[in-house]
Amino acid sequence: MKKFVNSRVKFLALAMSVMLIVSCQSSEDRKIPQPLQSPLPGSSNNPISEVNNEEWVESILKSMSIEEKIGQMVQAERRYIFPSQVKNYFIGSVFSGGGSSPGKNKAEDWIKMNEDYQKEAAETRLGIPIIYGIDAVHGHNTVYGAVVFPHNIGLGAANDPELMYKIGEVTAKEMLATGVNWNFAPCIAVARDERWGRSYESYGEDPELVSRLAVPYIKGLQENGVIACAKHYAGDGGTMWGTGDSGYPIDQGETKISREEFEKIHLSVYEEAVKAGVKTVMVSFSSFEGVKMHENKYLIQDVLKGEMGFKGFVVSDWEGVHQIKNKDFYQQIVSAVNAGIDMFMEPMKWKECYSHLKTAVEKGDISRERIDDAVRRILTVKKEMGVLENPLGDRSIAAKELGMEENIEIAREAVRKSLVLLKNDNNVLPLKKDAKIFITGPGADDIGLQCGGWTRSWQGDVDSWRDRWMKGTSILDGFKRIAQANGGTIITDPKKAKNADVTVLVLAEKPYAEGVGDDGTLGLYDGMAHNENKKAVEEAKKLGLPTITLLLSGRPRIITEEINDWDAFVAAWLPGSEGDAVADVLYGDYNFTGKLPFSWPKSVEQIPINHDDPKGEKPLFEFGFGLKY
Ligand code: GLC
Questions:
Q1: Residue 562 near residue 537 (C-beta atoms within 8 A)
Q2: Active site amino acids
Q3: How close is the Cα of 97 to the center of ligand 1, in Å?
Q4: Measured distance CA(83)–CA(114) in Å, rounded
Q5: Going by CA atoms, what residue is nearest to atom 6 of ligand 1?
Q6: Which segments does the entry list as coiled coil (predicted)?
Q7: Which CATH superfamily does the domain covering 419-606 fall into?
Q8: Residue 43 binned pLDDT confidence (cut-offs 50, 70, 90)
Q9: Where in the chain is the domain with CATH 3.40.50.1700?
Q10: Does ligand 1 lie within 6 Å of residue 231's CB atom?
Q11: What's the CA gap between 134 and 395, in Å, rounded?
Q12: Which overall architecture, per CATH, does domain 8-384 show?
């Protein structure tokens, strides 16, 4: 690695000196840029880290051709761009869409892939490294073997800012172990309608809760060498059912609320993220007041960059500009750039995007000042985050391996703190460690169901009879660990269940991501509910033992009837790869501390129902509710 970086710096110095000579001979019409005013970046007597950020950026900017500038504004998906094209088009960023992994999805495959891209970037005239983006939204979740944290909804229940910093730090370390230095996280959606498939990506229904957790997470990432990205700007969690885009009922829809509510609920979180120094913001697919966010000049240019003073750069979402209505691709690009988008997440059509940008500048549809503003922001982020010195991230920060014990411990702490106790009749919990426990239900022994979407693949998946979907431990593993150490018995065979003292029933949702998870019913036996829930609920009811139910879900589901048959009920959300930590709390080694980050509706007809907008109704359980032992 070291040798690679030195050669890049040397190459950069060489390239610049060549350019210095050439530029003295160049004629006006040649696109050879002016020589760097400031000393050569990275030259031996002037290490780049010593060069003042602003000076460096301005000197590079002045020396860039329009092609080199436009290249920085284009982001391609790894499956659709060769490393050589990164060089030829001066590409600014490459990324992984959900589940897009190289080779055998091992750390060394990721390092090799990033080295290949960075080597080519280093061979461009200016040698500006790419930044590699990924959705590491609950740990470095694409890579098999990484620690997978609870999804944001569970972290909202845990409501522990210090823990959030640690999660950001561990995520950064595991990302850097694979050479990846840009995280499309945190999602700071304030989800207001739990029928939305992305509810679990939200910390909760309250903007202050969201900011309290997003800020330390952003710092945890960025202070440990990874660029954070607050998404999706703005109002993604406030869309109205029935207004969805891309064929979804609510995802990517219209945030149909007053401007005052929009500012209070959905803009305030960006003010906090900008104050926290977030380096990038991703634009939402949704729209407000009938204007797609991807061409909302007022909200991006005037509010985010103007009033809020955001100095980082704005990236579009996956082909987000393609949703701009009544415009062809060229006009969409023009509209989006002029609205303030600085970089284009164009997984497949990055070449077309590049040429449209070039044409638009030549035709004057996009001003050179706007291009310079975009590129200045991108270069500033790269310079500030040390990407120039360490294109593959700071190796001294990178985890020595994925899934290290100390990282797992932080995930176990997060699991314990995320659990919310909503019912505990006759103190059936905590369980006695020598008790005979019948454990049943689809979520009892399935790491894939514990993790949910955005895990190894975009939509996530379940364990197979042979393999766990991800490395880690299941809820059942934890029960076995504690029972075996204390003379307890764990029964999983329904035929032997009558010998048990209690039933632990673990219900679940199927894994899903984004609009695929939009669910208009939210019952236990329909929509995105796991199709084995019904059988498990009926089996437990027939058995007639005291029953403790846990629900693995990315949002509240309607349990108003069924909960009457249960002695205890625990919302476990999507706890991730360290499911065995659940048992630590159910056996009483740790107390419950989790509180509801969402109002828990009695019926789907109540939705949207939020603590600050209850519409005269009472939910089944209030926002902020949670019992303790
Ligand atoms: C997706 C999501 C966004 C994600 C991006 C890249 O469509 O909306 O959250 O960061 O594409 O995977």
A1: yes
A2: 317, 514
A3: 7
A4: 9
A5: 97
A6: none
A7: Glycoside hydrolase family 3 C-terminal domain (3.40.50.1700)
A8: very low
A9: 419-606
A10: yes
A11: 18
A12: Alpha-Beta Barrel (3.20)
